[in-house]
Specification:
The complex is a heterodimer. Chain A has helices at about 1-10, 50-75, 90-115, 120-150, 155-185, 195-220. By secondary structure, chain A is mainly alpha-helical. Chain A has a single domain (about 50-220), classed as Up-down Bundle (Four Helix Bundle (Hemerythrin (Met), subunit A)). Chain A is elongated, with a radius of gyration of 25 Å. The chains are: A mainly alpha, B mainly alpha.
């Protein structure tokens, strides 16, 4: 049995292709088990950046389901006898404009990137990130506006939904801001993920967040 | 000789030596993912305790994570089993002082809490985690010819959040009921997040990381099942997450999403709220409807895979099976729509319908047909893994037939009591899925640990468990029917009561025996892990899929060197041109004259291990 097994191993241990990690001496004298990969694998086989695009599409699908569940509950709960409509704070309209503007600057940034103007890309990308942060701050201001009017989370279902929707959207948007910052500060040299792919994936997500906000706003405004 | 079970890892890490043909780089023990290239450690010798710590916590290798999920599920399944034992004993001898039940404040809530804990451990940490996250994580990348999951770090993160969720669910039991429930819901929300992360990882991996030549028709059925299941999980766990968010808002922030304040004026601050269960139930059942499929879909895949391998025949009506799996996933959504019209707010009906659909729906019939078609005229090898796969088919069929009764709304509503439903869904969902998992464990154990489980012990364990679970869950059906009977005046109440208590005792005895029989499994499992020396061949079952072309256990990065190229479909068994063997590995070139090509696993293969061949 062992004899043939050795043959099996030889079949699979093929020459080292990586070699990138050669700055460390191999040290496998004691701890063993075959689970240590004997081959340096600094540069893995070229991986497809497609996975990031696929991931963002599937994630959006999942997020849509999440917000659909939130929205359906809103629509059902609205028929309850204790429903008291809440006037949307003025600030949300300002925020909406900020968010739409950020989508615009994002697209402009990507155009600069396509044209090869990396400096312009960076500047516009920074503007987008700033607008995104501004939107999040604006949402908090909107909350404070509502609190000042005496509408707390638990005041009535309508106000609860406003807080929950904006908070849920805000949390998802924070992920978007994180992605924007990632594109801005990540060193993309020698990485399977290039900056343009990262920017593209981020832009998909950002526009999606934009659309989602419009949907939630319409729901809150028309459904009150 | 590439042995590295956990024990080897520990033994080796503690200074022992393991026969290893290759020098080992300790850097690889730490985050060997694509992004950091493994250059995160400074010293080549990070020190043994730190090394062990890193190995156990930060390895992003999909196989290590898959194994960890399996350990987690193993822990949960035994915990859940002890709970069911406590519950059964309590039912027969209510006065007995029992662990967990009489511990804290002795309130009747404890029993309900125990049921909840048993259910959530079994459904989430075992039925959802083991077949999908455990076996899927370990095998899916290998079976499609990938080196890793698409997002290894996310994978690792998801695992640790699952652990946090398990800790939360378990500790919730020891809190006061209200605080405990809040903690429990938060833990479930955490579990939703990890399930979503896993689902994303699985589906992206399957879509984008397949090896060259691994076209969709060539995917093993198990991969199909994991993939479809991932897509389904991606959609339904976000629904449960949303429901949990609302529920937590109700409990923590004082909102009234699922309840209406009794009086609208703020003066009645302490008045109890009027619950709106309908809303919650709709959200919950939308999830739970499909959750049944999430638990059972990977099991379908595993069982199909095993039956084909051990019948030495290709999966019969392969394409129909794939379509049936897709349809099963789709059904998870469609049937829910029915409930809103048909059953309104009855909390049991959706469960009933879902189980009916999962067991008697069109997809299930196609799968059953395919399993029997594959077995037909096959050279069936009754290994333990195959026995468990066949046990799955039997339990699934039996559970499905009792589903027929439950489909009748008039029977379900009041007449058939909880016992019938308990028996039914344990049989079809819990036990059947557990059998599929055990089959998978016996099948892939040699690949995971480089040695095989003992076949004789495995068979003894199988037969006791198989008879045992029927003795536990079949009488539960009778219990349900008897409590239906004694509603009618002709039957003496006393007779019915006597019969009921006798059956209850029988069930409890059978539970005791069945759970005791699991000690055989544990002994086999631990014993096989600790046994030294004998290594199995890399393809002991003479199977075709990619994992069997790798050493056992496969190295980090799976396909070291060249990426595999796929030439064949996943189940090429039987007489094959120019082949002495009755199977062809997926990597074997079709025009190869001599079967001794690398990767083909031809003449160097071992026959079945002696224990396996004995039967």
């Amino acid at each position: 049995m062992p004899g043939t097994h050795v043959v099996d191993d030889i079949e699979l241990i093929i020459e080292d292709i990586g070699g990138g990690g050669g700055n460390k001496p191999p040290a496998g004298d004691d701890h063993g088990g075959g689970d240590g990969d004997p081959h340096k694998r600094r540069k893995p086989a070229p991986t497809s950046p497609r996975r990031y695009q696929t991931a963002v599409v599937l994630a959006m699908l999942s997020i849509v389901m999440f917000f659909m569940a939130l929205a359906v509950t809103f629509l059902v709960r609205k028929m309850g006898s204790d429903w008291v409509p809440v006037r949307l704070p003025f600030m949300v309209w300002v925020n909406t404009i900020v968010l739409l503007a950020s989508s615009g600057t994002l697209e402009l940034a990507r155009r600069k990137q396509a044209a090869g103007d990396l400096k312009g890309f960076r500047r516009l990308w920074e503007v987008t990130t700033a607008l995104g942060v501004l939107f999040l701050i604006g949402q908090v201001v909107a909350w404070r506006e509502l609190v000042a009017k005496g509408f707390y989370v638990s005041t009535n279902p309508a106000s609860s939904f406003f807080y929950i929707f904006t908070a849920a959207h805000g949390v998802h948007l924070m992920g978007g801001v994180g992605a924007l910052l990632y594109v801005l500060f990540r060193n993309f040299a020698n990485k399977p993920l290039t900056q343009s792919v990262a920017a593209e994936v981020t832009s998909h997500y950002w526009h999606f967040m934009d659309g989602l906000w419009l949907f939630l706003l319409a729901l809150l405004y028309l459904g009150k | 000789m590439n042995l590295h079970s956990k024990w080897d890892v520990l033994r080796a890490a503690l200074g022992g030596t393991v026969a290893s043909g290759v020098p080992n780089d300790p850097r690889k023990t730490f985050m060997p993912d694509y992004d950091n290239g493994g250059d995160t450690t400074k010293a080549p010798h990070p020190g043994l305790p730190r090394l062990i710590f890193r190995r156990l916590t930060f390895r992003t290798d999909h196989k290590a994570i898959g194994l960890r999920y399996l350990w987690l599920a193993l822990f949960s399944v035994f915990l859940g089993m002890i709970m069911s034992l406590v519950m059964r004993i309590h039912l027969v001898w209510p006065g007995a002082h029992l662990l967990l039940l009489s511990g804290l404040d002795n309130s009747p809530d404890r029993y309900a809490a125990l049921t909840l804990l048993h259910g959530s451990l079994m459904v989430l940490m075992v039925l959802t985690a083991a077949p999908q996250a455990g076996f899927g994580n370990y095998l899916l990348p290998i079976q499609i010819g990938a080196r890793e999951m698409a997002f290894p770090t996310l994978n690792l993160l998801a695992f640790w959040v699952t652990v946090a969720s398990l800790v939360g669910v378990t500790t919730a039991f020891f809190f006061a009921p209200q605080a405990g429930l809040t903690l429990w819901i938060a833990s479930i929300a955490l579990f939703c997040v990890t399930a979503l992360a896993n689902a994303l990882n699985f589906s992206v991996t399957t879509i984008d990381l397949r090896a060259k030549g691994m076209t969709l028709p060539r995917l093993p059925i198990s991969v199909w099942a994991w993939f479809i299941n991932a897509i389904l999980s991606l959609l339904i766990f976000s629904i449960l997450l949303a429901a949990c968010v609302y529920l937590l808002a109700d409990r923590i922030l004082g909102t009234h999403i699922f309840s209406v304040p009794a009086l609208l004026s703020s003066a009645a601050f302490n008045s109890p709220a009027v619950a709106l269960p309908g809303l919650w139930q709709r959200l919950f059942w939308f999830f739970a409807q499909a959750q049944v499929y999430v638990a059972i879909l990977p099991c379908f895949g595993i069982v199909t895979h095993l039956i084909s391998t051990f019948s030495r025949k290709p999966v019969w009506v392969h394409r129909a099976v794939v379509l049936a799996l897709c349809a099963a996933g789709l059904f998870g959504f469609c049937i829910w729509g029915q409930h809103t019209f048909a059953s309104g707010l009855n909390p049991y009906s959706p469960l009933v319908f879902s189980l009916l659909a999962s067991s008697l729906g069109l997809p299930a019939s196609i799968l059953l047909m395919s399993w029997f078609g594959t077995l037909w005229n096959g050279k069936v090898q009754l290994t333990t893994a195959m026995l468990f796969a066949l046990g799955f088919v039997s339990l699934f069929l039996a559970g499905g037939l009792s589903g027929l009764f439950l489909a009748r709304n008039d029977l379900t509503s009041t007449a058939v009591s909880d016992d019938f439903i308990t028996g039914h869904f344990h049989l079809v969902m819990g036990i059947a899925a557990t059998f599929a998992m055990l089959g998978a464990l016996f099948f892939w154990f040699p690949k995971m640990f480089g040695r095989s489980l003992d076949e004789r012990l495995g068979k003894i364990h199988f037969w006791i468990t198989f008879v045992g679970v029927y003795c536990v869950f079949m009488p539960m059906h009778w219990l349900g029917l008897i409590s239906h009977l004694h509603l009618s005046p002709e039957v003496m109440l006393t007779v019915a009561t006597a019969a009921t208590s006798a059956i209850r005792s029988l069930v409890t005895m059978a539970t005791l025996v069945t759970i005791a029989a699991q000690a055989i499994f544990l002994a086999n499992f631990v014993g096989s892990l600790l046994r030294r020396g004998e290594a199995v061949a890399k393809n002991p079952w003479r199977a075709t899929t990619l994992e069997w072309s790798l050493p056992s256990p496969p190295p980090i990065g799976n396909f070291v060197g060249a990426a595999p190229v796929i030439y064949r479909s996943a189940y090429e068994f039987g007489a094959i041109a120019n082949r002495a063997e009755d199977f062809a590995s997926q990597t074997l070139k079709p025009d190869t004259e001599s079967p001794s090509k690398p990767g083909g696993g031809g003449p160097s293969l071992q026959p079945l291990p002696p224990q396996a061949a004995a039967m």
